[in-house]
Amino acid sequence: MDVSLVPADTSDDVRERGSGVAVLPVGSFEQHGPHLPLATDTLVACAVARAVADAYPVHLLPPVTIGCSHEHADWPGTVSISAVTLHAVVRDIADSLRRSGVGALVVVNGHGGNYVLGNVVQESSARGERMALFPAAEDWETARRRAGVVTSLLTDMHAGEIETSVLLHKHPELVRPGYEAADFVADDRRHLLSLGMSAYTDSGVIGRPSLGSAEKGKELLESLADSFGEYFALLTAETAGTPSTYDDSDGSDGSEGSDGERV
């Protein structure tokens, strides 16, 4: 069993951990150019969630593997569900967790097109439920700088330096040859939602995968794990309010991170 994708916990493990915080990776099943698999966003979300679970006492959930990838529909293999369906799935999972005694949920989003996840968290928080969306753009930006990722988040939209680096680190066997020559830049994408990705790229790539490396992937995940500390402190605080600092056994205070409009 690959525990990076499917957690191997028992009920006793969850009970003993006792933080009351669950982490749900949400990805997609969509084209990622000729060099990365359709499941890339799910693999990235799982890698981030696993890094978090290795650093904090959270209940790691199996991933939601299909998201809102309608902008990629022109490529074979892409599968989407509606925003309404994704909204309902995450809400149902949060409700089920609360019934079993886990009161807080962090949604780890691996696909920029899953816009509705922000609405789920917004609405849940307004009802007084404990939920968060991770990583934020700021978390990804900090991770980008820490890892030495050259491409900006605007340029590194899809199958680029960040995603290629994470997979080179976590799943190198899934990265196909040719990423070294697959760079393509299209920073002005103002009509993306109307026209889809095929209006901006023939290959499906927007970014610079040639700059990816396993070392950058490792640093990206470590930075994001550090950034999660503030989220963990916020969701486990006795009284909701100002975020505090989580002090783990290594003395890490958590902070930092990065992600743009990658889809």
3D structure, described in words:
The protein has 263 residues and is α/β, with parallel strands linked by helices. 38% of the residues lie in helices and 7% in strands. Helix 2 links the parallel strand 1 and strand 2. The two termini are 28 Å apart.
Keywords:
single chain, 263 residues, alpha/beta, four-stranded parallel beta sheet, 8 helices, 4 strands, 7% strand, disordered C terminus
N-end to C-end Cα span: 28 Å
Strand order of the largest sheet: 2-1-3-4
Secondary-structure class: alpha/beta
Helix percent band: 25-40%
What series of H and E elements makes up the topology? Answer: HEHEHEHEHHHH
Shape: globular
- How much strand? 5-15%
Write the layout of secondary structure elements.
Blueprint: H1 11-17, E1 21-26, H2 40-55, E2 59-60, H3 83-99, E3 104-109, H4 116-126, E4 130-134, H5 137-147, H6 161-170, H7 192-195, H8 214-236
Structure described in brief:
The protein has 263 residues and is an alpha/beta fold. It has helices spanning 11-17, 40-55, 83-99, 116-126, 137-147, 161-170, 192-195, 214-236, and strands spanning 21-26, 59-60, 104-109, 130-134.
